Amino acid sequence: MTRAAVLAPGYGGTAEQGILRALARALRRFDIDSRAITFRTRGTRPSRGYVSELEDLRAARDALRTQHDRIALVGRSFGGRMCAFLAAVEPPDALAILGHPISPPDRPRPSDEEALQGMRCPTLVVQGERDELGPLAVLQRIALVNPLIDLAVIEGAGHDFGAKEKEAVDQVARWLDATLR
Predict the structure, then answer these.
(1) Which of 120, 128, 176, 118 is nearest to 151 (CA)?
(2) Taking the mean position of all CA atoms in its chain, how far away is CA 40?
(3) Which of 24, 59, 93, 116 can pair with 70 through a Cys bridge, CB separation 3.0 to 4.6 Å?
(4) Is 107 exposed, middle or buried (0-12, 13-18, 19+ CB in 10 A)?
């Protein structure tokens, strides 16, 4: 069985985003292929209804599916939101999100909560303990009602993980190795 993951960057990021490159290296250690993408809308506002971003994810997923048996969607921040929206309607074999910006201050995102709450595939959310864009209380509430969601908290980290980025990346790689078997 062969395994692969689509890697989606945070807002404004590219396929060369540092955390995606680190993740690709970590996944290779587990014989998991990966394809990092750059959203076509990079540098502009997201498309209406995220149509372009979801098309970009589908194209990368479908390309990997021609050569691999098991496919995961993995996203960093904004990329994680996009992966969750696609996974909500077209569940992959696994979904992993690094720093879900599910509820920025004074900007609740009910559609994000709804997508995550209704997830039908194994899902890992790796969140910084002090992530101001994705409060743990919101994610914990959702994880309590959906047994397919694992929440891994990186102590002392904020939204960008900082010095704890390797810990977050390693969490995702180990989880995908176990989940995609």
Answers:
(1) 128
(2) 18
(3) 93
(4) exposed
Residue 42 has pLDDT above 90, yes or no: no
Query: Rounded distance, CA 110 to CA 107, Å?
Result: 9
Structure-token pair, residue 181: 């078997």
Kindly give the residue spans of alpha helices, DSSP state H, lying in 6-135.
Answer: 18-28, 51-65, 78-89, 110-117
Could you give the CA distance from residue 167 to residue 177 in angstroms, rounded to a whole number? 15
**Contacts of 1 by beta carbon, 8 Å cutoff, 6+ apart:** 69, 70, 181
pTM equals 0.97
Distance CA 19, CA 70 (A): 22
Evaluate whether 4 touches 33 at the Cβ level (below 8 Å).
yes
Domain ranges of the chain: 3-179
Residue 76 tokens read as 């960093």
Q: Pairing mode, if any, of strands 70-76 and 94-98?
A: parallel
Residue 147, pLDDT > 90, answer: yes
| CATH code of domain 3-179 | 3.40.50.1820
By the 8 A CB rule, do 100 and 124 touch?
Answer: no
**Whole-number Å distance between alpha carbons of 24 and 49:** 28
Q: What is the pLDDT of residues 149-169, one digit of tens each?
A: 999 999 999 999 999 999 999
